[in-house]
Structure formats: C-alpha cells, structure tokens
Amino acid sequence: xxxxxxxxxxxxxxxxxxxxxxxxxxxxxxxxxxxxxxxxxxxxxxxxxxxxxxxxxxxxxxxxxxxxxxxxxxxxxxxxxxxxxxxxxxxxxxxxxxxxxxxxxxxxxxxxxxxxxxxxxxxxxxxxxxxxxxxxxxxxxxxxxxxxxxxxxxxxxxxxxxxxxxxxxxxxxxxxxxxxxxxxxxxxxxxxxxxxxxxxxxxxxxxxxxxxxxxxxxxxxxxxxxxxxxxxxxxxxxxxxxxxxxxxxxxxxxxxxxxxxxxxx
Length: 265
Ligand SMILES: NC(=O)c1ccc[n+]([C@@H]2O[C@H](COP(=O)([O-])OP(=O)(O)OC[C@H]3O[C@@H](n4cnc5c(N)ncnc54)[C@H](OP(=O)(O)O)[C@@H]3O)[C@@H](O)[C@H]2O)c1
What we know:
Layout: E1 7-11, H1 16-27, E2 31-36, H2 39-52, E3 58-61, H3 67-80, E4 86-89, H4 104-131, E5 135-140, H5 153-173, E6 178-185, E7 188-189, H6 209-212, E8 215-216, H7 217-229, E9 234-237, H8 243-250, H9 252-261
Parallel strand pairs: 1-2, 1-4, 2-3, 4-5, 5-6, 6-9, 7-8
This protein binds NADP nicotinamide-adenine-dinucleotide phosphate.
C-alpha cells in the first residue's frame, strides 16, 4: 500500500494510460479522482475500482478545451476533497497530419488540449495544493516532447512546450513543496493513434503498427508509480524507441539522418 492515504487526481482516466494509472494507484492504496469528458466510461471504471478500494473513486467531468469546465472541475474537487496529493495531467490528443496540409486551427486545437488546458487546470489547483502543504504534479509529455517526428508537428510542439512550462514551475515552487515529474512515454499500447486528430479535425481511426507493438499500459503504469514515488523530475520509458531521446541529445547528426528517413504514413 505504497500510496495509502494519498489522493490522486487523474485526467484522461477514461482510456489507455489514465485508466491503467487509476487501476494501479487504487491497487497501491490511493484514493483516486477520475476525470475526462466521457463520464459513462469513468462510471464503469469507478464501479470496477470500488471493488478493490474502500471508497468509490470520485468522478469529475472535464473538458480541457473549455475553461468553464476546468474551473467547475477544480471547484468541485476543492469543495469535496481535503487535499490533492498528486495531480496527474495525463489527458491529451495526438496528431496524424503533415505540416504542409494542416490548417493552423488544428495546431491550435492540439495546443488547447495538450498545453493550455493542462496549464489552466494546474494553475487553478496550485493555490489549493500549496495551502494544503504541497503536492506533486505529474505531466504526461512524450518522447516526441524531446524531438520532432513526422506527422506529429503540433503534438510534438505542445509536448515540448510542457517541458518549458513545468521545468519553470518546478524551479519557482520547489520551496513550497511542489514537486514536478515530467513523463516521456515511448509507445504504449492504447487507442492514442485511433483517437489522434487529422488535418480535417476527424479522428485518424487506425491503430499504428508501432503502437500495436507498444508496452502494455499496466506495465507502464507500474513503472510510472515507482518513478512518482521516488520524486523523479523526468522519466523516459517504453520500448527501444526511447533510445531516440539519447540519440537526439548526444548524437544530433544521427537523429537528423534517422528522422529524415522515417516514412510519413
Ligand atoms: N500511448 C502512447 O504511446 C503515448 C506516448 C506518449 C505520450 N502519450 C500521452 O499519454 C496521454 C494519454 O494518452 P493515451 O495513450 O492513454 O491515449 P487515449 O487512450 O487516447 O487517452 C486519451 C485520454 O485523454 C482524454 N482527453 C482527450 N481530449 C480531452 C479533452 N478535451 N478534455 C479532457 N480529456 C480529454 C480522453 O478522454 P475523453 O475522450 O473521455 O475526454 C482519454 O481519457 C496523452 O497525453 C498522450 O499524449 C501516450
């Protein structure tokens, strides 16, 4: 029961990584608050988790594209929970479209969800976290938050932006006991490519081959809980694609060659 008595608020809990994190936090003794737009899926998950937890998880509807929804969610959490020990900013949307074909409105939509929605929620909750003695903010970036990759221009940029923002937040608030863990997953087996946005705003609808071979979400969740407990500032984990993070950093010339050879399909 490594997370006993901890309250963990997880966004994007209706699917994939968020769902797996909710299961693992619950198994390890935490009380979880589940957020996403699809409350039917959250309700189903909450009922499942209620069997292993002494309290049924809370459900808080959240649309990161809508400021009112974010404010309502934070108000609800403040009014119903004594504290939030860990906020997991996991919700996000990927992209499958070429730069040259993608209208800027689509780029803005990706940023609205992945970056502005995430920071709006965090800023609204921060004063409450600080007042209750501090807490930990987990931010779901990606390996492509460390390098660019074909078909994911705005997605990659939005994840890069999270690093700048949350590294700064960490440096400003560490004395107030706010910890930040930025997570760079490689390929994790979820519906992320199916749900990815395309140039016309519709969902991509296909499971990428690489995605299908990704790390199971429950394995990833266990790794991540260990990293969160250790207070890691940044973690990159997944399969061998994670090597690209180090190639980009230490052998940039090789990264440029490799990235230019990726077939953008
Ligand atoms: N899977 C991977 O290989 C991988 C790799 C690197 C990073 N990531 C990151 O991991 C996070 C989770 O992705 P996943 O793989 O679990 O994908 P997923 O299965 O598509 O889950 C995405 C989650 O985000 C929520 N979401 C999407 N738009 C939202 C919005 N406007 N407001 C609130 N919630 C929203 C979805 O819930 P609703 O639709 O119900 O709102 C869903 O719960 C994302 O940030 C993604 O970028 C994933």
